[in-house]
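Exercise 7.
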Amino acid sequence: GAYNDFWFEVAGIGDTVRTSLVVYPENGRFPAAVEGAPRQFGGLGPDVPGARPVRYTVGGIAKDGPEDRGLSTRCIVGFNSGPPFTPSLYNNNVQIFQSRNTAVIMTEMIHDARIVPLGDRPELDDDIRLWSGDSRGYWDGDTLVVETKNFNGLRQTFNSTGANGNMVLTERFTRVAYDTVNYEFTIDDPSTFTDKITAIVPMIKVGGLLYEYACHEGNYGMFNILRGARVEERLAAESGTQ
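Solution. The predicted structure, written as tokens, is:
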């Protein structure tokens, strides 16, 4: 494979005995997809031919140009930077901090900072669409609630399915212990799934700092993927096997 298992983050289940992160539907499973919802399957294996836009984060449909590669390879969004956040193989680091009028949710991977206005600031016009959507937040007791919409439709809704242009995402951050925040998210996208999805993921405090993830500056992976494909094409043409 492309990764050594040594670097994977394998977390325990904490104090929960749940067998699924999904708490709604109550059976812990994803609801059925809406008929006709787009499906794209990425991954670390061979490319799966398909049509642009590539909505998944890892993998690709071809190597004709950068638009054929996954969003994380292109340094647009990280494979674990959300929203919503789901556990990934490594670098699940998130920092949350608050100013007087905003909360900031910053992920180390791809170095993405989502600035969430708190209060009644007007929402963006519907025709303004963003990779991470337009977020607004408020406090419900000790829980930070973040509601996000206006996604650009160029990412999947969830689990290799859908286009997130119609998704409304509600996230709830609740500190339940000194070192634990319960992260609960609800996906509501009737154009992708026949029901809502709610999951709860424990976020555990770690000691240390977040570091700059200079993705574009160090993205030799994209260059080498495309360069290698051109070399393969040249060799095939020279040998008459193209």
